[in-house]
Amino acid sequence: MKPLDAIRTCFKKFVTFEGRAQRSEFWWWALFVFLGGLVFGGIDTIFFGVPEVTGPSAGLFSLVCFLPGLSVWVRRLHDTNRSGWWVLLILLPLIGFLVLVFWAASRGTYGANRFGPDPLPDTYTT
Hints:
Number of helices: 4
Low-confidence stretches: none
Organism: Celeribacter arenosi
Largest sheet: none
Number of strands: 0
Pfam families: DUF805
Number of domains: 1
Protein name: DUF805 domain-containing protein
Order of helices and strands: HHHH
Keywords: Membrane, Transmembrane, Transmembrane helix
């Protein structure tokens, strides 16, 4: 999936917690959010003189990206055949985040699983 397609898909499916998301969709979204946070944080620092994370434009960007980010993370977990409730591991400091990143980087299950059809059916060879 191309970067702009991934970002468009995440915004289109911003409250869709069903189905599966391929790795490229998740990681392009993560890069978009990271770079957007840097840009808006820099704008806040330059124009408002506040630390990067607490400024108004960075806060608004984070708010806009929260639900799409949560939904793509849940769909990514579905691709690895895990329940979306595992996203609550983020509440465990450091360990939970590391486990979730490991799962997000893992290859999804081949073929259909209990959460839907494979998002990449034509790329696997048998």
